[in-house]
Amino acid sequence: MIEHTEAEAKLRAMPKVDLHVHLDGSVKPETIIDLAKRDGQELPAWDAAGLAPYMKVEGDCASLAQYLDKFHFVGAFLHTAYALERVAYELVEQSAAHNCYYIEVRFAPQLHRERGLSVRDAIRHVVEGLRRGEVAFKVKARCIAICLRGHDKVRNMEVIREAAEFYGQGVVAVDLAGAEAAYPPGLYEEEFHLARQLHMPVTIHAGEAGGADNVETAINVLGASRIGHGVRLKEDMNVFRLVRDRRIPLEFCPISNIQTKAVSGWDQYPVRDYFEQGIPITVNTDNLTVSDTTITKEYAALVAHFKFTEEELCQLVRNGAQAAFLLPPEKENLIRKIEEALKAWASGE
Fold this sequence. Notes:
This protein is of the alpha/beta class. It has one domain: TIM Barrel (Alpha-Beta Barrel), CATH 3.20.20.140. It contains 16 helices and 8 strands. The chain has an 8-stranded parallel beta sheet. Helix 6 runs parallel beside helix 7 and helix 10 crosses helix 11.
């Protein structure tokens, strides 16, 4: 029998991808302390443990809305070029520590403008931080620009237009995130029509705090080719078949899906059911800091709760590589590298 520490070490060494990780949900407490000192800002505590209640979910959340409250505290420190570049760089570093070969980091540019940055500036500095991290840590890193539920059409269209200027130069897609139950995706049809006109790939947060109908709208109206979460897909079998038949990847984030009450608990989490029925499930972190997670922990949760085998874990990683928003030559290269690395990992080389 493999000892727990040995099994954990092997999971950590498994090559991985992370397609759904939020920049502002993955900032290290130590970095917030440094940024506060640099800018002369006050903090409720000056040590990582003291900041934990402000940055991490502790125990259960009542809802997605309560989970999202953690972002307000961190967001106050991310309004400069230095801060955005630094946290993007450090996110690549954190991913490298768990053998990620590729990450897609998403953030909402409009939330980082209180000290004079434009939408274009915010995107440019995050892309630069990811680029530097890619060079330093050998993890391919790309950016997804988020439009926000509750923001008006003008602000969200500005994000899409500016993101399109960076397409193929660090930005790979656009997204819609925020309070799904209050702002269903159908409210944003015009914005994502623009995304399609500009040939921007689209992923939409749907089927997390809202039902399967939001997934259908995200696909058929907003043009999503991937779905962020999609956990509640099973509530409508017609939508389930739509996703399965079109092979639309779902960006599952197991630990945060439990925390946000997308399902009531692990016994209701549909990851194995969807996987066995042919849905292309991908495994991701969502928010390293807010959820107190790593990509290794996410895979470990699937082993612990659903007895995923090594072969099945490898297929989940392949799903992630195949779902990447990279342009064809880069994507083919990533898939090849992942396949070679998975074979070596499974054989114990």
